[in-house]
Structure formats: C-alpha cells, structure tokens
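Reminder to self: tokens first, then the designed residues, so the page reads top to bottom the way the pipeline ran.
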C-alpha cells in the first residue's frame, strides 16, 4: 500500500467538512481497483493450500487445508473485531505505536465514506489472512489443530500493529519515511519471523533428521499448482497496492505488475542455475519453486520503484538467498516443511533492504517522500530507515509469537501426541483415513498401547478407495445372490411367477 505521511485530505459533504485519512482517499475507479484486487488476493489462500499440501505427507493433507480455512474464518473474524482498528483506527487515543478506534467497523448508509471504508477493510483483510497462513505451513505435521485454531484467532495482533506502523498515518515507521508498498516487511517478514519461532518451539517432526536428508514433497503436482495460483495472486497483491488507478496511480499499477513478473523471471532463472549446479545437472523441483516464491517476496516492497533490470537483479538475489538458506536451516535442524522461514523471512528481509538500495522517486506520487535509494544517489537515510524497520518488525514478531504460543501451550499443548503424529492429523483430528499408506499396520501396532485408537479401525478409507470399492463389491455380490435365488424360485414356481 502507498505510504502517505501527509495523507489527510479534506472533503466537503453537505454543510460539514470531515477529515479523510489516506486509506479512505478513494475515487469510484480506485474503489473498483481495490475491491477487484482484494478478490484476486483471496485466491492466494487456495495457492497456499495446494503448496502446503504438496509439501506434507498424504496423511496430513486435509489438516493443512483445514488450517487455511481456519485462517480465513478465525483470522477474518478477529480482524473485524479489533485487528483493523489497531491498524487504521481514527480514535483520539491513537499513538505512533498503535491505532485505537473503528472496532467492529460497519459504517451506515449515511456515512459518506461507507464505500471507501468497506473497500479498504476488505483489502487489508486479505493481507492479514495471508500473514497468518505463512505460519501454518511451518507448523505442519506436528501442531495440535485446536492449539493452532487459538493461535490463528489471536495472531491478528502480531500482524496488525506493525501494519499500522508501516501504512497507518499514525505509524512511527511511516512518519520516519519507511517504504514498503505491498508488504515484504509487515506481511512476509512478520510471517517468516513468526514461522521460525513456532518451528523452534515445536521442534522437528518425528524422525525428521534421523537420516540427515531432506524429505521429498508429498505431492509435487500440488506444489506446482500452488505456485501458479500464488504467482497469479501476487500480481493483484502488488499492483493492487497502488491503492487505485486515479491520477498517476494507474501507470504505477501497470509498472508494479510488470516488475513483479520481471522479478520472478530473474528468480526463476537463478534458481534453475543454482539447482542444476548443486545437483550435477538435475533440476530439483523444490529449489525452483522456493526460488520463484522468494523472488516474488523480494520484489514486493518496492514493486513499482524499480526498472526492469533492477527487478530482475533483485529477484535473482532473493531467489539465491532463499535457496541457499534452505540447506543451512536443515543443517541446524530447523524443520520447516514448506520453507516459510527462507521464502518469507529471508526474502522479506532482502526485499525491504532492496528498497533502500534501488528505489527511485515515483513522481508525482509521495510513496518515498521524494527520497531515492543509495544506488540512485539518495544517500544513507532511506537504507537506514529500512534497516530500522527490519529490526522493529523482527523483534516484534519474535517476542509476540513466542509469548502467544507459550500461553497457548499452557492451556492446550501445541505439539501433537507422538502416536497421533505417527498416524497423521487427518485421521486423528478430522477422521479422514487415507487408503494404502500403511495406517492399518500402524493402528494394529499402536492399538495395545493406546486402546482409544481401536475406534479408528472402523473409519472408512478414502483416496484410492478400497473401502468404497469393497462396499460396492459386497452390494453387487448380494444383488447377484438375490437374482440367482429369485431365478431358482421362479423356475420351481412355474412361468406365471414374477419376482418383484
């Protein structure tokens, strides 16, 4: 979203004047642009679901999808209850640290700002749910689902306060001149930092580092589908953050879309070269996908502040940093099933720094307050503020995530029971029993130690569905026996007998 340090505009309605913060400074065309972008950004939840389900084992696919559902339901509810208010509230108690006001936001038909308020709320809601979803993949395959629901409910606070620092007219980072158009910092760096804390608190999955090698993705096709859906959604994520198309904003909206593509092209090519050099000419699918995603995160903060060659360079560096950090984290036994720490944490950090190095002044917009990056002759001020933003955002996300998970763990253990982890969250949390993945043997082995698992044997299997096939076969056999019996009875009763 555009930074607006002086974005209080006076409008005249009837016989009274009201003050309009920049977040509501929307024309009809701007509102249409913001709403359409919001709709597309919400499709990224499907992309995250496919991507994360492709990374985990089959026995946890449904669970990771349900976490994405919960992120929208519970995260969306709390964002309406208080999240939006602590980011963009207009109350008298608002401070540079946190906004206060506009809770349970619901302007009436007489409010002249009803349309802009609803459009701004929906757009920011799509950002908030994305920030929470980043963490869900990092906690996959060993996090208690009920504990995660509580985390998703309150994680709104972890995102919304830094969002106010960066994009609210009250925010201290905004007023210092920090620049982040579409959220490399308040969305991705927040998500990546929170993901790392949650990983360290949960510990690695059972047996994850016993052999010292990376686990293969559960479903590579889902990984690719998720990438394409996120790629598509990222265009709205970045170009929609011009926050309209009026004035000169439409030109920078177009530039943001193209530079987003350019960044991903640089990231994709560099990740292909990396994986082929690392694997003796073999292309590793995970390296390419996380490289492209890392480049998209990297280009997000300054998406319309760069030239094409700069976007390609930033994306290429972001992809390499992301790919190089994955084996490093594995060496340190940081078990991140989807690479959230590398993609969103490392990519987001580089994206924020890149603004301080490469940013141009997008005349006539006030996005950078007239400043340029270090490499454009702008001096050290912008890069210094960007570094301050990184420090504040990482510190906030780390401390608050640890505190929230620590409190939740006192009430509901955040780590799954080892037996449940072995059998999978789909079976234990959602009563979904996949076929042909060895669950029958596991249930028989673990049954004597945990008698309550006996009821799980009666759950019908799905997938390549022997349970369904067996049921159909039994019905066919029974029908066949009935038909044979009826024919036998008919032959004995004579030609006039007809079975019903």
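Designed residues (500 positions):
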């Amino acid at each position: 979203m555009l930074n607006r340090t002086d974005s209080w505009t006076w409008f005249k309605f009837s016989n009274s004047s009201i003050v309009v913060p920049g977040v509501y400074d929307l024309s009809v065309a701007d509102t249409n642009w913001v709403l359409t972008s919001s709709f597309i950004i919400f499709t990224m939840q499907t992309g995250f679901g496919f991507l994360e389900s492709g990374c985990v084992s089959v026995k946890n696919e449904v669970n990771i999808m349900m976490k994405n559902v919960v992120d929208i339901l519970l995260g969306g509810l709390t964002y309406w209850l208080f999240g939006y208010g602590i980011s963009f509230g207009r109350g008298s108690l608002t401070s540079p640290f946190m906004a206060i006001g506009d809770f349970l936001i619901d302007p009436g038909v007489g409010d002249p700002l009803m349309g802009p308020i609803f459009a701004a709320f929906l757009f920011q809601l799509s950002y908030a749910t994305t920030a929470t979803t980043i963490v869900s993949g990092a906690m996959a395959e060993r996090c208690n689902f009920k504990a995660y629901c509580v985390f998703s409910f309150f994680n709104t606070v972890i995102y919304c306060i830094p969002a106010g620092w960066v994009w609210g007219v009250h925010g201290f980072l905004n007023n210092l001149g920090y620049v982040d158009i579409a959220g490399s910092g308040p969305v991705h760096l927040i998500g990546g930092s929170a993901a790392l804390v949650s990983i360290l608190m949960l510990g690695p999955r059972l047996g994850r580092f016993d052999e010292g090698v990376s686990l293969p993705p559960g479903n590579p096709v889902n990984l690719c589908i998720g990438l394409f859906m996120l790629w598509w959604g990222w265009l709205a994520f970045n170009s929609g953050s011009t926050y309209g198309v009026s004035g000169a904003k439409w030109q920078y909206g177009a530039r943001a879309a193209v530079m987003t593509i350019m960044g991903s092209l640089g990231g994709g090519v560099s990740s292909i070269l990396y994986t082929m050099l690392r694997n003796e000419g073999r292309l590793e699918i995970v390296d390419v996908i996380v490289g492209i995603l890392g480049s998209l995160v990297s280009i997000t903060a300054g998406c319309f502040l760069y030239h094409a060659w700069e976007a390609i360079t930033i994306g290429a560096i972001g992809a390499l940093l992301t790919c190089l950090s994955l084996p490093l984290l594995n060496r340190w036994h940081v078990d991140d099933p989807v690479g959230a720490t590398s993609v969103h944490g490392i990519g987001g950090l580089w994206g924020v720094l890149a603004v301080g190095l490469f940013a141009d002044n997008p005349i006539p917009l006030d996005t950078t307050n007239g400043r340029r990056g270090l490499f454009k002759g702008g001096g050290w001020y912008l890069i210094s503020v960007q570094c301050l933003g990184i420090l504040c955002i990482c510190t906030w996300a780390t401390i608050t995530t640890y505190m929230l998970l620590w409190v939740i763990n006192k009430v509901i253990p955040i780590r799954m029971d080892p037996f449940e982890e072995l059998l999978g969250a789909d079976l234990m949390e959602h009563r979904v029993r996949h076929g042909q993945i060895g669950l029958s043997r596991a249930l028989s082995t673990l049954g004597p130690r945990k008698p309550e698992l006996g009821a799980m044997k009666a759950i019908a299997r799905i997938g390549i569905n022997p349970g369904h096939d067996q049921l159909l076969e039994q019905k066919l056999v029974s029908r066949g026996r009935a038909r044979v019996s009826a024919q036998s009875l008919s032959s004995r009763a004579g030609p006039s007998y007809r079975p019903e």
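The first strand starts at residue 8 and ends at 13.
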